[in-house]
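Could someone model 6-O-phosphono-beta-D-galactopyranose with this protein?
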Amino acid sequence: MSFPKDFLWGGATAANQYEGAWDVDGKGASIDDHLRGGDGIHGIPRQVDIEFDPDAIYPSWEATDFYHHYEEDIALFAEMGWNVFRMSINWSRIYPNGDDAEPLEAGLAFYDKVFDCCVGHGIQPLVTLSHYELPYSLVERYNGWASRDLVDFFFTYAKTVIDRYHDRVKYWLTFNENNLGWSDRGTMLSTSMLQGFTGRRDEIHTTPQMRLNALHYQFVAAAKIVKYVHENYPDLKMGNMDAFLTSYPYTCDPADVLENQKHMRQHNWYASDVQVRGKYPAYAKAFWREWGAEPDIQDGDLELLAEGKVDFYSFSYYMSNTVTTHTDVEQTEGNMSMGGKNPYLKASDWGWQIDPIGLRWTLNEIYDRYEIPLMVVENGFGALDEVVVEDGIERIHDSYRSDYLKAHVETMGQAIDDGVDLIGYTWWGPIDVVSAGTGEMRKRYGFIYVDKHDDGTGDLHRVRKDSFFEYQKIISEARGA
Ligand code: BGP
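Reply:
Sure, complex below.
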């Protein structure tokens, strides 16, 4: 394999799906704490509850309880050979209402312990500042990211945690997958809520004007913190994070090719062009015309975008879809998206089409465009796992997950041979966590099984799946051990 010796191998999680302890030590409610679980296989979306129902289950409340299991979990990560662990900080654990005058010391102390534990195991943390998480109070009082006020609240929060942890965390990501502001699923209430793009007071969540503004405010907020870091901590590296929704023209009909180009711009390039190149792309104006709205660009915003360009590009990659102008193509699901079925690909139980070659193609496309270091910070396979007991020991024979992993690692190696400067790979959900899109537990991605179920039962004990040993082997071979 072609991986450099210092390549970053690890896994990726997010506080809202993993941490639990939703109201412990003064933490405020987050947007995701107001979401119930849905059913992805049967197309039942997550429900948003403004008021909590005492009889309902809110999956993020306990999730898989990293809060109380972090030492055990990080030791397991180290056993696999990781040198990087992607996680996110819960903004509402630091500022419970989002705009409090002072941060909560108990929240800050928790992440101190987590980062110290990682460093003690030779694992460097890679931290997402905002991963589908926002203090819910900001939604109630400001309509979430529809309000420009959030730029300064976010900056205060981000500055607080970077000032505190800069000695242990070198790599930071700003917003998780904010390009999904334009995904097909982005118009659904639960997705808007996950992105903090919705408001309680007027409950507007689908107008192009509001989404353009929310995205613009996130771009400005991201640029502001990137600029601050560059000026104060030149050794740190700041990245964006996009959900790369790879798509192909369904046919070679030029109309399909053109339509796919538009799809790629809208879903993939619009957000990263701003964050990597520091300016809106030329084609943005054509979209704004079509949508009948323009973002609220105020004096100083464009200068800030130019000053806050990221150092590396990170993205999630799970599947690919097709785009067509023809109406007879069967549709299927993707990561917060829909697209045409590809007759050459198989799909997961949730309809996500498995496409390792697409990862090589995607890495090359991104690198050709930007020529800055790349990281694949999410890639994984959500499946229904079965626990079997053999000689009194619990086992999960998840060869389907190992196959997916091996195939994608292989095409990443080929992309490196193609000339792509790929510096790291973090598998999504290396330990079972709550699904973001569907809120399900049964959609499992982990190399480590967690005894936790959709009805809220389970004692949270951890079990190494077969894929745990596969990843361990891949990492050790890649390092030439
Ligand atoms: C990405 C999110 C993650 C994660 C993953 C898998 O979009 O960044 O938070 O959940 O997708 O998606 P899902 O959990 O919906 O299967």
